[in-house]
Every structure is written in structure tokens, then in C-alpha cells.
Amino acid sequence: LFGLFVNLVFLGQAFTIMLVYVWSRRNPYVRMNFFGLLIFQAPFLPWVLMGFSLLLGNSIIVDLLGIAVGHIYFFLEDVFPNQPGGGRLLRTPSVLKAIFDTPDDDPNYNPLPEERPGGFAWGEGQRLGG
Questions:
Q1: Are 21 and 71 in contact (CB under 8 A)?
Q2: Residue 65: left if φ>0, alpha if ψ -120 to 50, beta else—which one?
Q3: C-alpha–C-alpha distance, residues 41 and 31, integer Å
Q4: Are 24 and 17 in contact (CB under 8 A)?
Q5: What is the per-residue burial (b if ≥16 Cβ within 10 Å, else e) of 82-114?
Q6: Most buried residue, 34, 95, 121, 128, by most Cβ within 10 Å?
């Protein structure tokens, strides 16, 4: 929805920056090294990438969009549910769960025994040099 407001059709780069933002917020103590020049903590990675994009002469609107959406997702998924009175607002639709979730394992399922893993006769040849 945010892409409509900034006239972006392809949101691949914004999605990538959003994933980088969420990862960096979930791993705040990881030390990063950018081209051997900058050493910083992981939460600064999206901002460093945005600065590098700016140095290359690219528009930073896409990066800002990814950071904004990543921040909203991180807040709704990781911060708000842990607050007093908070809860999970983002839920997977039941239609998608029904399509993609794996069925429960059958407790009565017993696989057939295999003589050799993979069905190959490993180690049944002749010994070398003997």
C-alpha cells in the first residue's frame, strides 16, 4: 500500500531493506563490517546501506520505504505483543494455513526398515591391496 503513495511498481529492493531492518533489530549485538571501512552494530545496517545508496546517487525513497515498513512489522510482531495489554495483530489467514501447513504426523506410522541407508550396498566390495 505504501508503494502506491510513492509511485513504486517494483518493491523488491524495499522488501530486501525491510528484511534487513527486521534482522538487524532482532540481532542488535552483531558487529558489522562495511567494506572494511566502517565497523558498527547491526541495528545501523539499514541506515549504512541507505547512506551508501545515497553516495551512489540513487533515490533513497525505496530505502526509507523499506525501513518504515520494517519498523512497523518489527513493532507489531516483536514489541507490541510483549507490552502490557498488547497482543498479536498480524495473523496468518486460515486459508493460507489450510493450504500450506503440513498435516500432523500419524502416530501409527512405521516406515519400512532399510538394509542400507539410501539403498546402496556400501562397503561390500573387495579391500584394496589385498
A1: yes
A2: alpha
A3: 5
A4: no
A5: eeeeeeeeeeeeeeeeeeeeeeeeeeeeeeeee
A6: 34
Residues 20-68 pLDDT 10s: 999 999 998 989 888 888 899 889 889 998 999 899 988 888 888 889 9
Domain ranges of the chain: 1-82
Alpha helix stretches (DSSP H) within the chain: 2-5, 12-26, 45-55, 61-74, 94-100
| Stretch (H or E) spanning 125 | none
Question: Position 71: which residue type?
Answer: H
pTM for this predicted structure: 0.66
Closest CA to 25 of 37, 41, 39: 41
